Amino acid sequence: MKHSHDIPHLGVVVAACIAAVSGYATASVYAIYYLRDPAMIGDIIGTWKSFAVLAFGFWLGSSSGGKAKSDNQDVTVTNDLSDPVHTMEGKNL
User: Fold this and answer.
1) What angle, rounded to 10 degrees, do the helices at 38-64 and 10-30 form?
2) Rounded CA gap, 85 and 23, in Å?
3) Are 40 and 31 spatial neighbours (Cβ–Cβ below 8 Å)?
4) How far, in Å, CA of 89 to CA of 93, rounded?
5) Which residues, 6 or more positions from 7, have their beta carbon under 8 angstroms from its beta carbon?
6) Cβ-proximal residues to 48 (8 Å cutoff; 6+ apart), any chain
7) pTM above 0.85, yes or no
8) Would you call 33 helix, strand, or coil by DSSP?
9) CA 52 from chain center: how many Å?
10) Structural domain boundaries of the chain?
11) Model confidence pLDDT, tens digit, residues 24-64
12) Which of 6-15, 47-56, 80-89 shows the lowest mean pLDDT across its residues?
């Protein structure tokens, strides 16, 4: 059963992520163990640290983003497509 919150082409997304991480890991091992350039090693370690921070931030944001509560929980949208919500778009406030 497909839900509206499912990721389209999930298999392709997962495969691309695995390929990207595997490719960078292979390049990292090559650069660290064979090239032994201190500047390159520092860049690689920095990139892995940034990746870890990004992954943790994404996990934290995605796990808490849908659980945020607002003070106005009783708001109900009553208009339909024939009666759109009017905004002040394009005007200076």
Assistant:
1) 150
2) 48
3) yes
4) 10
5) 13
6) 28
7) no
8) helix
9) 13
10) 10-62
11) 999 999 999 999 999 999 999 999 999 999 989 888 877 77
12) 80-89
